[in-house]
Amino acid sequence: MIIAQNIGVSIAKTDILSDLSFHAGAGQLTAIVGPNGSGKTTLLKALTGELPYTGKISLDGDDMRSFSTAALAARRAVLPQAAVLAFPFNVLEVVRLGLLSGLHVHDSDLPQRALKHVGLAGFEARFYHELSGGEQQRCQLARVLVQVWHPVRDGKPSWLFLDEPVSALDIGHQLEVMQIARDFADQGGSVIAVMHDLNLTAMFANSVALIAGGRRVIQDSPENVLTDAHISNAYRCNVQVNATPNAGGGAPYLLPHMASIRRA
Amino acid sequence: MVTMDTTVPTAMPRPIGDRRVLAVRVIWLSAFVLALTIVASLTVGASGTSLFAALIDWASDNEIGLREQVILFDIRAPRTLMGVLVGASLAVSGAVMQGLFRNPLADPGLVGVSAGAGLGAILAIVLGGLLPATIAALTGIYTVPIAAFLGGWLTTMLLYKVATNRGRTSVAVMLLAGIAVGALSGALSGVLVYMADDTQLRDLTFWGLGSLAGATWGKFAVAAPLILLSLATTPFLAKGLNALTLGEATAEHLGIRVQRLKNIAILTVAGATGAAVAVSGGIGFVGIVVPHLLRLAIGPDHRYLLPASAFLGATLLLIADMISRTIIAPAELPIGIVTAIIGGPFFLYILLRNRGILDM
């Protein structure tokens, strides 16, 4: 369980987040949504320890600040928004970098299994910088999965932090990657994902935190967060939220209206 | 050589795209070529004295002539070993700097280590006479090398302070500050050159172009510990530099203590380059050409790139030195001219052929 209490983050004396609380549990896919510039990525960076913050964040009961770099690397992996490589590594070599945390160094074919998992089997010898944006994103996902392969290890959940994991993907690969994240959570791990696509969020997330202007508006189930009122206020546009017609679902889905943008 | 294939743990057939076995083979091959080059370097020279002739004399119980002894053991041996150390440290500090800056064109020359070392050397050559007698007596003939090393080290420390804010080192600030410090060092050096007399001017020109001609066992003893200590840190840098390719934040997420990695890498480069420049002057292109060539051959994995750079850098510098001392014998061409004449066009050729790989 990650619990963030009243955290604040300032960059160059500007408050990006203030007095924000957030929680994410094991076995859950928790989505962070909100308009551009609302502080989603900043929140993720505070949760991964990348940015200094005020307030308190605890990871499975221990203060986040008490973890060493190596101990954190054994517990959680982070997928950044975009990764540009400085040198011509090939796909296999990039995925192998996930072994640096030291957890699975003896599992010599794990990088290949991870590549197969994200649909990149046969890409091993290709140069990373020659891949398409979506292939690069899935290659990085394979590296991240190699770092914390087992959703539960020594009785504790592993954590995946994904910053817009499907932003460069087509609809088929979006569903594939979200399913990988969903499976990781279903097997006892925990996933925190910054999301732009609210329909995918509704389909795959257990819990949704909506933030706007550096503050949390609400965190609850998708049904309770993704409502006409919340979305219209946070994103400043009119949408119509319905329930999916297929039997088992009932998840909300959004129909944006043309010419419905609310100019403030 | 028997251990060649056991260096990498093997459990199953190697997947396509695995360049590790190739990399290990290239390391062994470059070590072997270096050994051959060392023998050649001991054999080739202006005097016509040959290692083999001396060995035959020694094996057939003849006295080795005093002249042969002096040429082999007091001139060629220290010069050859110095060439090995300087070549290895130039190539390795190039590779480490490029990994640290995540830029295949970075070079110790870029961050001002060479410029600072140059200023130190010129200060010692021009103003060395003003040193208090006690210090001059202590430093003796090593005044110039020591001043060059101190200059390089102080410059790196200054840049490091400028570029580090709240425990984080900005690579961009350091590169830009390196350009500023390089320009400042160049200007100060220019003032000193203006003040120099004719003899000093000749020393300056020779030193500035780079040469191994001054190599003695004494200078070797000054430079070797620092260079070896710097090279010894590189196995501990390799994994971290690999992770750093993904950016500082991602490297930290992978469990690398990035700030510590940067501290060690900067000290390594300052030590190796400062000492190398001190004993051999400004020798260009080795630090850029060697890591480039190796990345094209075995890929950018620093666990293999760093040792291979050491061997190939040493080999190339020895070959350049052999050319420099024989091509216009009995006179010598400064080695920096040789490395620039060979390295410059070669570097352009590599860039033209591989724009696809380099253009990222």
**Integer tally of domains of chain A:** 1
**Low-pLDDT residue intervals, each spanning 5 or more residues of chain A:** none
Give the spatial strand order of the biggest sheet of chain B.
1-2
**Quaternary state, please?**
heterodimer
Mean pLDDT of chain B: 81
Task: Describe what this molecule looks like in 3D.
The complex is a heterodimer of chains A (264) and B (360). In chain A, 45% of the residues are buried. Chain A has one domain: Rossmann fold, CATH 3.40.50.300. The mean pLDDT of chain A is 88. In chain A, 30% of the residues lie in helices and 31% in strands. With 264 residues, chain A is an alpha/beta fold. Chain A has nine helices and 14 strands. The N and C termini of chain A lie far apart (38 Å). Chain B has 360 residues and is mostly helical. Chain B has a single domain, classed as ABC transporter involved in vitamin B12 uptake, BtuC (Orthogonal Bundle). Chain B has helices at 20-43, 51-59, 66-101, 113-127, 133-139, 143-163, 171-195, 198-209, 217-232, 234-244, 248-253, 258-280, 286-298, 302-326, 335-353, 355-358; strands at residues 164-165, 168-169. A two-stranded antiparallel ribbon of chain B has the order 1-2. Classes of the chains: A alpha/beta (264), B mainly alpha (360). The interface between A and B is large, with 40 and 33 residues.
Brief synopsis:
The complex is a heterodimer of chains A (264) and B (360). Chain A is 30% helix and 31% strand.
Features:
heterodimer; A: 264 residues; alpha/beta; B: 360 residues; mainly alpha; ABC transporter involved in vitamin B12 uptake, BtuC; two-stranded antiparallel ribbon; globular; disordered N terminus
Give me the secondary-structure topology.
The complex is a heterodimer of chains A (264) and B (360).
Chain A lengths: L1 E10 L2 E11 L4 E5 L6 H8 L6 E6 L2 E2 L5 H7 E4 L11 H6 L13 H8 L15 H15 L4 E2 L2 E2 L1 E5 L7 H16 L3 E5 L3 H7 L2 E6 L2 E6 L1 H4 L2 H8 L1 E7 L8 E10 L3
Helix pairs in contact in A: 4-5
Chain B lengths: L19 H24 L7 H9 L6 H36 L11 H15 L5 H7 L3 H21 E2 L2 E2 L1 H25 L2 H12 L7 H16 L1 H11 L3 H6 L4 H23 L5 H13 L3 H25 L8 H19 L1 H4 L2
